[in-house]
Amino acid sequence: MKKKGSYGVFLLIFSILFLFSSLYGEENKKEDSSFVASVVKKVSNRYFSVIVPFENNVFEEQFITVTVKVFDKSIDKIVLRTSYNVKHEIDIKEDQDTYCRTLMFFIGENFIKVYAYKNGKKVGKETIKFFNKAFLSKYYKIVPDGYKKEFFHNNIYEQVCDKCHDMSVNEVAGIAFENVKDSNCYECHKNLLSRKYAHAPTVNFVCLPCHNGKVGRNNRKYEGKSKFLYPDPIGEACYKCHKKKRKEWSTKMVKHDPVGAGKCNKCHNPHSSGISKYFLRRSPWRLCTACHADKKYKKSYINLFINKKRAGENIDDKFLKGEFTCVDCHNPHASEERFLLKDSMKTLKDVCISITESGGKW
What we know:
Strand order of the largest sheet: 2-8-7-4-5
Helix content: 25-40%
Distance between the termini: 73 Å
């Protein structure tokens, strides 16, 4: 009986403490956003903390926002240095304690080093490591041990930014902004427009048709983790706009594997591209040979085409000069012919099969 009574007292005290902490947290969390920093990561120095990127996080885009929370405003400036030694300086303002910069990083393992300076002297430092996943790279499409995906856009972490940014969604379904700067997404994600070619939804900051918070069979484990998840595979979302392509490809006898699996974003960047008006992640030859690696040497093809020409075949000069890519002969999506050959090339035989280790089986 005595043991049971002690347990009851313990529960009563715990309940009172929990209620007090909850009330206190709700009343003060918006006034003192440092609680968010403590949720995100442990502060390693008394001057500032890096809120995002999270330690050992995984990203799928090269544009990543670095957000720093300053606790001691006696410092003069914050300096950011990327893993490839690009430097950015931020002057500290009296009326501001949170600073952010969106920077571009390469694929693979990266870090951002953040320094605090006071009177010209370095007084604080933090280093955050993260991984930028590549959809095609042999080496960087698999996330190494020690890294994990964590999402920023949820009700806890967004409180870091709501003093300066309106974190609500002001997009109206089916209606593009007359001025994209009016989008609440624009200020942080405008760098997506810095590439030469941008996808129409990105140009117009129509984000929700894809970033609808839903998951697919490949990312169900992330359900509920972010307001702006997209379903993986993404194909069904793409076909809502590209209805004609879906109809066209569905009737073809042979479909390229990414098309059949709905993995449009394996080859295409759904936001923008600096390479192609089709938003390709790489130039066509490099894109295709990222998977079909045994077919990457053009010299072998050129020699074969020269021999075919000598044997009397009608070979276009661009094949003799090496001015060709895979899509000159193959349809990258779907075809009625074996090996996805285009109708105009269906009589062309024994090219890839002749010179590659796979024997034409892929």
